[in-house]
Amino acid sequence: MNVPDHLYFSESHEWVDPAIPEAAVVGISDHAQAELTDVVYLELPEVGTSVSKGEAIAVVESVKAANDIYAPVSGEIVEVNGALAEGPEPVNEDPYGEGWMIKVRLADAGEVEGLMNAAAYRETIS
Amino acid sequence: MISSPLHVRHLELGARMAPFAGWNMPIQYCGIVAEHKAVRESGGIFDISHMGEFEVVGAEAVTWLNGLLTNDLNSLSDGEGQYTLMLNPSGGVIDDLIAYRISSDRFFLVVNAAKIEEDRDWLESHLVSGIGFVDRSMDFGAVAVQGPAVTAAWNRMELDRPLPKRNGISEYEDGVVVCRTGYTGEDGFELFAPVDAIGPWFDRFVDEGVSPAGLGARDTLRLEKCYPLNGSDLDAEHTPLEAGLGSFVKLDKDTDFVGRDVIVSQKKEGLKQHLAAIAMTGKAPPIRHGYEVRDPDGKIVLGKLCSGSLSPSLGRGIGLAYLDAEDCRPGTRVSVTVRERAFPAEIVKKPFI
């Protein structure tokens, strides 16, 4: 499983790229997409929504089941990946790239420190 | 939980396993959508070792079975089979099954895994002298081989075992039974073999290019064809008429059968409900079992989906629900509620494809 070194991870398998705190990128991990199997539908939140860490913010569906995606950090949603509404395949094919889901203006950049780094996340999925 | 005789093969193929009717079964291998398309376009092989097999013997077997099943076994010749239903006294469905006539005094029944015990208890409680009943469910491993390319695969294998004709059955000397039926709407067959022999059969089909397919694809394939799933679309409270299976209920046969009087009066009084086919008309999340069907405005609840899925062939949500007769006309606009939001849908003619 691919776990890029520069990302932070939640226990519910979302990743955060905090390089730009005004627009931190969030998606689901390679491990999560493999567990979900083929994603056929994705429901993303509205831009402008304020989210709290741990809150269900999106729904990702395979043929078999619907699963919630939880906010790994708190903040305001400043952008969503609209392309995924047309075809959610990138969530499976490129979960850390084209499959990104939302961008969040972090309410507290320090919150990221509470997430797992890549090494710690690798431990949890091994 | 029971493991199929093909269990090790499933793990080697990377299947995702899940409990189904007390068995640990493969839900998918490479992905439901790909497996579904493989069956529609070429060929797929499903482990159906969990299915139940019964054997009924006796000179009066036709009369006995005709008293417990809705279809008419008198219409079968040796080597032929038919879809039929076993009803409770209220006309509700105990199980739907396929009954094959091997010979005039020997019948092979293939029943749903989740209903093996209930079916067996029901049949045994009605046993009469001269009828032999054997539950052979644990004697067989079984595969369903389905798709437009599978008969060619069978012929390439040069087995010197001619396939039976549609809905037919062939029994071979080594205990293998092949039935020309399935649950996908494609040509194909179900092969039942002694438990020790099913593994090599599975391998031979895979070697011939038939793709392993799991119960996930089996469900989407059958739903596109509106084949009912017992426990979801069929239950003890709904009759086969309400389920749209009236053509498998023969009121004119020479035997009375359990549930017949309810069917007769329902036919006379007219049906209040039908199992309707519902298709989403716009972009919508996949629809699932239990979601509410409502009026187009999403205000009035009309019923609940007993089956629902994304149709891999159509790329849109499809489902079945028992609705009042006046809501069931094809073209009727309805909605399906997903996470408190109403998405537009319509009643369509069966099957979906």
Q: What would you say this structure looks like, in words?
A:
The complex is a heterodimer of chains A (126) and B (353). Chain A has 126 residues and is α+β, with helices and mostly antiparallel strands. Chain A has a single domain, classed as RNA polymerase II/Efflux pump adaptor protein, barrel-sandwich hybrid domain (OB fold (Dihydrolipoamide Acetyltransferase, E2P)), CATH 2.40.50.100. Chain A is built from four helices and ten strands, in the order E-E-E-H-E-E-E-E-E-H-H-E-E-H. In chain A, strand 6 and strand 7 form a beta hairpin. The longest helix of chain A is centred in the C-terminal third of the chain and has 8 residues, at 118-125. By secondary structure, chain B is an alpha+beta fold. Chain B has three domains: 2-51 and 138-224, Probable tRNA modification gtpase trme, domain 1 (Gyrase A, domain 2), CATH 3.30.1360.120; 53-135, Aminomethyltransferase beta-barrel domains (Alpha-Beta Plaits, 2-Layer Sandwich); 272-348, Beta Barrel (Elongation Factor Tu (Ef-tu), domain 3), CATH 2.40.30. Chain B has a six-stranded mixed β-sheet. A six-stranded antiparallel beta barrel of chain B has the order 15-18-17-16-19-20. In chain B, strands 6-7-8-5-9 form a five-stranded antiparallel β-sheet, with helices on one face. The two termini of chain B are 35 Å apart. The relative contact order of chain B is 0.15. Chains A and B meet through strand 4 and strand 6 of A and helix 2 of B.
Category by helix and strand content of chain B: alpha+beta
- The backbone outline of chain B, from C-alpha atoms, is globular
How far is the N terminus from the C terminus of chain A? 9 Å
How are helices and strands ordered from N to C of chain B? EHEEHEEHEEEHEEHEEEHEHHEEEEEE
| Number of individual domains of chain A | 1
**Radius of gyration computed on alpha carbons of chain B:** 20 Å
Number of strands of chain A: 10
Low-confidence stretches of chain B: none
CATH architecture of chain A: Beta Barrel
